[in-house]
Specification:
heterodimer, A: alpha/beta, Spore Coat Polysaccharide Biosynthesis Protein SpsA, Chain A, 7-stranded mixed β-sheet, 18% strand
Chain lengths: 229, 110
């Protein structure tokens, strides 16, 4: 399905100090014929060079702003390049590039504007119990705040149509962007579908992943934004 | 009792804030924890606050002023936090424009 529309599908990868793995991740996505933009979020290592050499378009934040800010930059860039579909994909190697096709197919099949990956519909491998509980709590919280009945609210693998991507305007620079994105989907009234995806946890991705104190940061950020409205 | 509960909630929020901030600024985090714990101690042990006040020559009448000051300080702190967030949003917009203007396409960079 995705063959022949590679330039229409843009995969956005936000990366911060990912020089160890970014080349492999980019190469894995490029191999499927998609355009890739890596947003280097002010890394202090060779992330940018490695991503470029692997075949990605590269955008570099002059300072570290956070994953949410990097994703928004990538989405803006992809739309400027004429993307018909935008996919967000994690830089730490925990997603499978071949599952992008499943998300795109789901968009077409359900005439949806957002296809959201869910590890709980799919096969989470090596998911620690504490991480599972934290994600379940986040899912419950998001359901309460947005009304969206989702099984996985902090999954970085998503696909969206151009129309969907155009309504995304992330102001949460850091981890709270995942909840903010769902809030914007709910407010937009655009349709969404959940798609089973596989998350492959490794020692590297777990070390880079969210911690319990991050969930508090997310709550603080979301509360502060509501006060600013 | 009501004032004690309200102050406990507010000071507990400061403790959570300190935990979050500790990773970014350890000194601020530790100072915030110290201030919040001291505040909690005196809120629930007002007689010790009185003893300390007497020791340094301050009467009990100042307690109310102190409590009001704490609440005002918390509000000012929240306000500063929100203003910093707004500033950060502006910096983000500028950085994004700069980054996209200097983007390198795959064909040029490989």
């Amino acid at each position: 399905m995705q063959a022949g529309r590679g330039n229409a599908v843009w995969v956005v990868i936000a990366a911060f100090n990912e020089a160890r793995v970014i080349a492999r991740v980019v190469a894995g996505v490029v191999r499927h014929g998609y355009s890739v933009v890596v947003v280097d979020d002010g890394s202090r290592d060779e992330t940018l060079v490695a991503a470029a050499q692997a075949g990605a378009h590269t955008v570099r934040h002059p300072v570290n702003l956070g994953q949410g800010a990097a994703l928004q930059t990538g989405i803006d860039y992809a739309l400027q390049q004429g993307a018909d579909y935008v996919v967000t994909f994690d830089a730490d190697g925990q997603h499978r590039a071949q599952e992008i096709a499943s998300l795109l197919q789901a968009l077409d099949r359900h005439c949806a504007d957002f296809a959201l990956g869910s590890r709980f519909l799919g096969t989470p491998t090596n998911l620690p119990t504490t991480r599972r509980l934290m994600l379940k709590a986040a899912t419950w919280f998001t359901r309460l705040m947005t009304g969206l009945r989702l099984t996985d609210t902090h999954n970085g693998l998503r696909a969206m149509t151009r129309r969907g991507a155009s309504v995304v305007a992330l102001r949460q620079n850091r981890m709270a962007h995942a909840s903010e994105l769902l809030d914007q989907i709910a407010r937009s009234g655009l349709s969404y579908v959940e798609v089973p995806v596989t998350i492959e946890y490794s020692a590297y991705s777990l070390a880079k992943g969210q911690k319990l104190s991050d969930s508090l940061s997310i709550l603080v950020d979301l509360s502060a934004q509501r006060l600013l409205r | 009792m009501i004032a004690q509960l309200i102050l406990t909630v507010l000071l507990s929020a400061i403790l959570l804030y300190a935990w979050v901030e500790y990773r970014r600024a350890p000194v601020i985090g530790l100072l915030s924890v110290l201030a919040a714990l001291t505040g909690l101690y005196f809120v629930w042990m007002p007689s010790h606050a009185t003893w300390l006040a007497a020791l340094v020559g301050i009467g009990r009448g100042v307690d109310l002023i102190l409590y009001v000051w704490v609440v005002i300080s918390l509000i000012v702190l929240l306000n500063l936090h929100l203003k910093l967030r707004m500033q950060h949003e502006l910096i983000t917009v500028l950085a994004r424009e700069l980054a996209i203007a200097n983007a390198r396409s795959a064909s040029k960079s490989t």
